[in-house]
Specification:
The complex is a heterodimer of chains A (164) and B (904).
Chain A: E1 9-13, H1 19-29, H2 36-44, E2 50-54, E3 57-68, E4 74-83, H3 92-103, E5 109-117, H4 121-129, E6 133-138, E7 150-156
Chain B: H1 7-21, H2 25-38, H3 43-55, H4 59-72, H5 77-89, H6 93-106, H7 111-124, H8 127-140, H9 145-157, H10 161-173, H11 185-201, H12 205-214, H13 222-235, H14 239-252, H15 257-266, H16 278-294, H17 300-303, H18 305-308, H19 311-328, H20 333-337, H21 346-364, H22 377-392, H23 396-409, H24 414-426, H25 430-443, H26 448-460, H27 464-471, H28 480-486, H29 490-502, H30 506-526, H31 528-537, H32 540-551, H33 557-575, H34 586-590, H35 593-627, H36 644-647, H37 652-666, H38 671-683, H39 687-701, H40 705-720, H41 727-739, H42 751-761, H43 766-779, H44 784-792, H45 813-826, H46 830-843, H47 862-868
The chains are: A alpha+beta (164), B mainly alpha (904).
């Protein structure tokens, strides 16, 4: 919407050579400083962590952690997903999330989940569009921001492992 | 060869020669020893053995044997030839030429020696000798193509293009009609083009054009054909045809600026200085409008009109030019526009224009008068452009605020940090500039360019160790010093030499400067192989061009900087020899004598240790290097890593004079060359040479403060010397007496008067006032307070400029630093110097030198913090970043951000 020109949006992987781009994004987007584990997980997740480029500018990222469960199943945890403020509303977040959801169609992946602050309605609505549901509420999840509570949003993937 | 030997030994001798040619040195050595067993005094064998050993890295033995051989057989051309080859391998070309000449006296028609000689003559530019040798070769072997070509090129180089042409014509006459065969068509075509260029060189344009048309089917390089044709057409005044041809060339490459220039010339719409009448501008405007229709994809056709258009039309064209580039995001846009800042008035128009764009994008999200929404990045690129604009105009504070806003907008664009670093450099904070450059580097560790840029900034901030560590990230084997040297990475060596010089480490500084000088010697050396190669491959036009380039090689800016740097080191070395080097580093001078002694001892021990290690390594590598098939592939360890040996030379001034001569020859129009000459010759007490330097300075820029300084200093010094006693001194005196009246500045004036009238002419310029004050003090030390007052009374006015939105002060940072040093060290007025510092800190708040309040030298500044935690790479300290749960843009659902907390 709005922008009448075609600008290509592309995704690129995160490597140790360009990880600073992800750091820059996180500093600008989130009030939390992520530690080295976060970046190690992101690098280890391979295809599940991506930078989004608006023409040649890095403007957003999705970062995931792969959690191995017993029996070889894998849960995907979306650590962060964000787009720089001026570049929102251009479908970049959708593209990033769809990229990860497409990857999740592999048979051994059981679910994708994430945490979101309880008052972040727009984010919640955004994820609901993609089939995420609130599965849990955790009190006092955050320490320095209010409200401190968060929801766990989950999207079940593998039909074989449904227990219902 | 080997004639005096019996048959068996003669065969052995042939084997030595063959082994040498096929590089089987061990075999050759064996054969030589076999002969020498029976005939220990056989000259030619001794010589050949020497030559063989030379290739096995046994230099001193080689020279001994070759000389011994020659002594035993002075009448042998082989011995002389070998001696020449030995010299050639050590680049002693003059000596080698002498040896070849002696060999030729004995065997005048020896083709091999003649050919070797001709190569050396080309290399040494012994052009008449080159012609002679080439003629001999042609006479001896006229059926050899290369000999014809070589003879022609020799004449061309010897400034006889028409003779060269005749020779090539004669050569063509010897060819069959069906020449060239398919596999030689390119080479033949090149020869023809070279021949035609010779006609052009001799001014025979008509004939050249005729020849060109006649040979068209045989010329393979069609583009070169057209370019040659159009050049001749224009020289003959056939402008209409020229125009047609230029249009054809443009359709082949619509981004070649020379074609546009040529087209303009054909249409009578060209001026060298870029000034045009109104009519001409109109004509040009119409021309480029029509060209733009034709060549839609050309960027040159859009950019060129910005050079000649003025006023409103310029603004409109610039607007049309800039808009799409901002939308697209072209980081080089500013450097593309920056030549326009030298055109009067255009910078103001650009400023106004970009500000209008900024305003419109901010308020409406689109360009003025446009209905199309701009992408979000456009605002960031506008801010980026504005930052560079204000930086160029010296308005660093606004520039910084613009770049900070751009970074806030899109913190992931690396160019933003590079530009921020550059602005900080310009505003006088080199440490902060290095820190931001490092931040840019961290954002793409795979980019060599930003890595190099960062290294340079670190060197500018005198962080040499850090710079070396950073540079090493992109060199192959980790041993970066050698590696950067082997790659002839001159910007690095210059920047690090300059840094060492600033830090008073003259040894290392000299080492770096001389390394650059050596690269230029190597480049000169490198042409050697081309003398034979190009003749064989027929790339004659390029070859002749390359030789011309080599002839002006030393005028290149890097050489100039290196030579000037080396000369400065030597002068400083002369002024304060290393023994009494209390001032070598400031820390030392602050120490107690006993501490100094201890430190010296420590240093000496460490040096001895390092030296020993280096030598050991060196020995190891050289022995192991030789044992492997006699080839040297192990790099020798640098025996003098800190350049201490360079400091121990007896006569630094004569050493400096060597480099000065190169500068005088290759950069005669640079003020710096003659300033250095003046400083050097005054120290050497070479009065007339110093006087020559003064005259050169007056010729180049008589009103320059430094020219004035040298003039006054010179005559002041001469005036204070004792009356001449020796004849040679009297002669010098009489020359000066005759010359002094010819200098208009001193005409019927005393030095004090000359100094006064200099001030009178340049009252409003800080640097001229400073020069006056310094000279006043030199001429009359009692007038020191007057000199200081004059400097302090200078006013920093607003720079004259129309339409500027922000005022700019006139003074430049580097000038103010120079004045501060003048006050502090030459005039030795510490109070005045510190007053000056306080004053300049106001003008230059980002200057670390003056400890401005915003600079990283000021403990409470943001940049200070930045430099302190440069390593953790978190610049965007401002808490303006989006809150986690706020969705700002248009309430759109896809826009969001979310939180997560790391679990351990």
């Amino acid at each position: 919407m709005g922008v009448g020109r075609e600008v290509s949006i592309s995704l690129d992987g995160v490597r140790d050579k360009n990880i600073m781009q992800l750091r820059k994004l996180n500093i600008a987007l989130f009030p939390v400083r992520y530690n080295d584990n976060y970046y190690a997980d992101a690098l280890a997740s391979g295809e599940y962590t991506k930078l989004a480029y608006y023409s040649d500018i890095c403007v957003g990222a999705i970062a995931c952690r792969l959690e191995k469960k017993d029996g070889g199943a894998v849960r995907v945890y979306i650590m962060t997903l964000g787009v720089l403020a001026p570049y929102r509303g251009l479908g970049i977040g959708t593209k990033l999330l769809n990229h990860v959801l497409d990857l999740c169609s592999k048979p051994n992946i059981s679910e994708v989940y994430l945490h979101v602050q309880t008052n972040n309605d727009e984010a919640i609505n955004f994820y609901k569009k993609f089939g995420f549901e609130i599965t849990e509420t955790i009190q006092n999840y955050y320490t320095n921001i209010t409200p401190p509570d968060c929801y766990v949003l989950t999207k079940q993937i593998a039909p074989s492992s449904t227990k219902k | 060869m080997g004639a005096s030997l019996p048959a068996k030994e003669a065969n052995l001798f042939k084997l030595i020669v063959k082994s040498y040619e096929t590089k089987q040195y061990k075999k050759g050595l064996k054969a030589a020893d076999a002969i020498l067993k029976k005939f220990p005094d056989h000259g030619e064998t001794l010589s050949m053995k020497g030559l063989t050993l030379n290739c096995m890295d046994r230099k001193s033995e080689a020279y001994e044997l070759v000389r011994q051989g020659l002594k035993n057989d002075l009448k042998s051309h082989v011995c002389w030839h070998v001696y020449g080859l030995l010299y050639r391998s050590d680049r002693e070309y003059r000596e080698a030429i002498k040896c070849y000449r002696n060999a030729l006296k004995i065997d005048p028609d020896n083709i091999e020696i003649l050919r070797d000689l001709s190569l050396l003559q080309a290399q040494m530019r012994d052009l008449s000798g080159f012609v002679e040798t080439r003629q001999q070769l042609l006479t001896l072997k006229p059926n050899h193509r290369m000999n014809w070509i070589g003879f022609a090129v020799a004449h061309d180089l010897n400034s006889n293009a028409s003779k060269a042409f005749e020779i090539l014509e004669a050569y063509e006459g010897t060819l069959e009609d069906d020449h060239p065969p398919e596999n030689e068509r390119c080479e033949h075509g090149e020869m023809l083009l070279y021949k035609i260029s010779l006609l052009e060189k001799s001014g025979l344009f008509e004939r050249a054009l005729e020849e060109l048309h006649k040979k068209e089917p045989k010329i393979v390089d069609k583009l070169a054909y057209k370019e040659q044709e159009v050049s001749l057409l224009v020289k003959l005044g056939h402008l209409e045809e020229g125009e047609k041809l230029y249009r054809i060339l443009l359709s082949m490459n619509p981004d070649n600026y020379r074609y546009y220039e040529g087209l303009q010339k054909c249409l009578g719409l060209y001026s060298d200085n870029g000034h045009y009448s109104l009519d001409e501008i109109e004509g040009l405007d119409a021309l480029y409008k029509s060209l733009r229709q034709q060549y839609k994809w050309s960027s040159a056709v859009k950019r060129i009109p910005l050079d000649f258009l003025q006023g409103e039309k310029f603004k409109e064209a610039a607007d049309n030019y800039i808009r799409p580039l901002l939308t697209k995001g072209v980081p080089s846009l500013f450097s593309d526009l920056s030549p326009l800042y030298h055109h009067p008035g255009k910078a103001d128009i650009l400023e106004q224009l970009i500000l209008e764009l900024e305003h419109s994008i901010r308020t409406a999200g689109q360009y003025p008068g446009s209905s199309e929404k701009e992408p979000p990045s456009t605002l960031m690129w506008i801010l980026f452009l504005l930052a560079q604009h204000y930086d160029k105009r010296g308005q660093h504070e606004i520039a910084l605020s613009k770049i900070d806003e751009a970074i806030e907008h899109t913190p992931t664009v690396i160019d933003l940090y590079s530009v921020k670093s550059r602005i900080l450099k310009h505003s006088g904070d080199l440490a902060a500039a290095a820190a931001f450059s490092d931040e840019a580097r961290c954002m793409d560790l795979a980019d060599r360019y930003i890595n190099s840029e960062c290294v340079k900034r670190m060197l500018q901030a005198d962080q040499v160790a850090l710079a070396e560590k950073t540079a090493v990230l992109f060199t192959k084997d980790g041993d970066q010093h050698n590696n950067l040297h082997d790659m002839q990475c001159m910007w690095y060596e210059l920047a690090s030499g300059e840094s060492y010089f600033r830090q008073g480490d003259l040894g290392r500084a000299l080492k770096k400067f001389l390394a650059v000088e050596k690269h230029y010697a190597d480049i000169t050396e490198d042409q050697f192989d081309f003398h034979s190669y190009c003749l064989r491959k027929m790339t004659l036009r390029t070859y002749v061009e390359m030789l011309a380039f080599q002839d002006r090689l030393h005028s290149h800016i890097y050489f100039h900087k290196a030579a000037a740097g080396a000369i400065r080191c030597y002068i400083k070395l002369f002024d304060s020899p290393p023994k009494s080097a209390a001032e070598e580093d400031e820390d030392m001078s602050k120490l107690l004598p006993s501490q100094k002694k201890k430190m010296r001892q420590k240093q000496r021990k460490a040096e001895a240790r390092a030296k020993k290690e280096a030598e050991e390594k060196n020995e190891e590598s050289s022995t192991s290097g030789v044992s492997k098939s006699g080839k040297r592939h192990v790099k020798p360890v640098d025996p003098d890593p800190r350049g201490e040996k360079l400091l121990q030379i007896q006569d630094p001034l004569s050493e400096a004079a060597k480099y000065l001569k190169l500068l005088q020859k290759s950069s005669p129009d640079s003020l710096e060359t003659h300033l250095l000459a003046f400083e050097l010759y005054m120290r050497k007490q070479k009065i007339l040479l110093a006087f020559q330097a003064v005259k050169q300075l007056l010729r180049l820029d008589a009103e320059h403060p430094d020219s004035h300084r040298c003039l006054i200093k010179f005559f002041h010094k001469v005036g204070s010397m004792n009356a001449p006693s020796m004849d040679s001194e009297k002669l010098i005196w009489s020359v000066l007496e005759a010359e002094r009246p010819t200098i208009s500045q001193l005409h019927e004036k005393s030095l004090l008067e000359a100094n006064n009238s200099f001030l009178e002419n340049h009252k409003d310029s800080l640097m001229h006032r400073a020069a006056f004050a310094e000279m006043l003090y030199t001429l009359d030390p009692n007038k020191k307070s007057e000199a200081v007052k004059l400097i302090e009374d200078s006013t920093n006015d607003l720079a004259p400029r129309n339409g500027a939105i922000w005022p700019v002060k006139e003074w430049e940072l580097k000038d103010c630093v120079a004045v501060h040093k003048l006050l502090g060290s030459v005039l030795d007025e510490q109070d005045a110097a510190s007053r000056w510092k306080t004053r300049c800190a106001e003008y230059f708040p980002y200057s670390t030198y003056f400890e401005g309040r915003h600079s990283s030298a000021s403990p409470n500044s943001a940049l200070n913090q930045k430099c302190k935690n440069a390593e953790n790479g978190s610049p965007n300290h401002s808490v303006g970043a989006q809150n986690a749960n706020s969705i700002t843009s248009n309430g759109n659902l896809e826009a969001f951000s979310k939180l997560s907390i790391q679990q351990s």
